[in-house]
Amino acid sequence: MEFSLSEQQRMVRQMVREFAAEKVRPGAAARDEEGRFAADVLAEMASLGLLGMLVPEEYGGAGLDVLSYALAIEELARVDAAVAVTMSVTNSVCQWPILHFGSDEQKRRLLPPLAGGTSLGGIMLTEADAGSDLAAMRTGYRRQGDRFVLDGAKAWITNAGVARTFVVLATRDAALGARGISAFVLDAAQPGVIVHAPEKKMGLRSSVTCAVSLDGAEVPAENLLGSEGDGMKIALATLDHSRIGIAAQSLGLAQGAVDETLRFTRQRQSFGRALVDHQAVAFRLADMDTELEAARCLTYRAAWLSEQPGRHSRASAEAKLFASEVANRIAAAAVQLHGGYGYSREYGVERIYRDVRVTTIYEGTSEVLRMVIARALRDLDTTAGE
Description:
Layout: H1 7-34, H2 39-47, H3 66-77, H4 81-101, H5 104-115, E1 121-124, E2 140-144, E3 147-158, E4 165-171, E5 181-187, E6 193-198, E7 209-220, E8 224-225, H6 231-267, E9 269-270, E10 273-274, H7 279-305, H8 313-338, H9 348-356, H10 366-378
Parallel strand pairs: 1-4
Antiparallel strand pairs: 2-3, 3-7, 4-5, 5-8, 6-7, 9-10
């Protein structure tokens, strides 16, 4: 079993690590305080190829593998998870389904501006009453000549207002449930797309998240992904992939919390010794590091498996479930080990604690992921070991 990274993967990790330290970290706290989108940082990321990492070079992307992409997210989230999730969303839930379910013509037309960063992407999936239960969505579409017309409301849309290209899920008839859902690529720069005020969130404050209303928004027929009725299949496959990105984001947040805590406990004195020299603190740090490495192994394995034949829902669900819950535990421990300072915005663990909380919620709650894993176990062939 091979655990080492390739030379290219190590180069990607080092390049993003240096970029994150030099360009992302310095303004992270101020962007969080002001709720300011990192447009300048994203522009520089585009020049490095980070906004089209998984897209083949023939469509203007970097043509990298999923593990390289996960490593990049991890390094960005280590200093600013809001920037990491903006990058993750345009790469994963927008470009990935176009790449894997789009026609050759769609790929040639839609992917170059996304991969080059001239257009950010996102997905319009969640609704007020259809989050975990995607089949309950009510946003509808109807065919009108050579176009589809969409009406409805979407909630918690990352990159709304700053992205132009969205994969949108809508139903032909809500009574059909999952069978009625189709996927489209929508140009958000049209009158029928109404982006509401940004949500006032606990964390990830410089990542833009808004509710969006669709009022007669039009999609050319050539922007239908796959065939009518393929929407649920496309959505579930996309989530299998995008959960790896959230697992990687969780790793970065957890590593950032460990970094901050090591710095603090080495410098802070208590009873005549550095905190890190007290056994209770040292053992807590040892547990944090061990859990983080276990989560890293699950996440990297899921990234590798995602490029092997077949679907790997269980692997991505396990990686996202474990990494997100570990990251929340590590962030809580980091605040605790900082004592009163951990409760202050002057210290980085306070922002990490807020940013990490959503990782067990979006891209599949921990409860939904346990359902996904349990269903996979139910159908598992147990005769192999006999």
